[in-house]
Amino acid sequence: MEIYSWNVNGIRAVKRKGFLDWMADTQPDVLALQEIRIQPHQIPDKLDNIDDYYSYFNCGDRKGYSGVALYTKEEPNKVEFGLGIESFDREGRVLTAYYDDFTLLNIYFPNGRSSQERLDYKLDFYDAVFEYCQELRDEGHRLIISGDYNTAHHPIDLKNPDANKKKSGFLPIEREWLDKLEEHDYVDTYREFNPEEVKYSWWSYRTRARERNAGWRIDYHFVSDDLMTDVIDADVLTEVMGSDHCPVWLKLATD
Fold this sequence. Notes:
Its EC number is 3.1.11.2. Helices cover 27% and strands 24% of the residues. It is built from 9 helices and 12 strands. It has a 6-stranded mixed sheet with strand order 3-4-2-1-12-11. A 6-stranded mixed sheet has the order 5-6-7-8-10-9.
């Protein structure tokens, strides 16, 4: 089974850049999208009804902002939307799909750069997600936490760590939350298979950073350690264009 996660920076925008052709060529078993930036009534039929896929959308209340979507060839046993916390759920940031062998969380974590208020919101969101994941694990679920985390973990994960150590996205307090995940037996799958490789998943449009490969790795598939026996490989697909992010990929063994 091949699972992809991609912040598309607007699902209608990426559609104009060949998204449907990429879907047809790639045939992901599961595709988690973040920052779809669309309202339910705006979703065109070509995006809602893709051959051989079930589709689910969690749209934010604010127009043109946030939101996540899931395309899956196998119908999940259950799909849930949000964390059950209104201040977070109104931004449409979480979609949880329950399968027989694992539970997948598609999450668009907040960006904390615009203000201290948004940084506090991001950190509160992190804590709520952690509690949610721990509750799922206590119930016996093996987890895949896919999405745009909006934080680079280690200096290897961004081009200019020293210049960004006081900016949201690489603050010690944000990175400590990723440390906390690993301390509680969640695994960064890409780094597990590629301990020293430098790849980025996001590049700023404003500075034409992708041309210079001055990027950040902020998109992840973390999994609970009890699922690692089924993980075959993981990668960052830097060659895929269409957004300021590229997809991240996870391959699982299946029966």
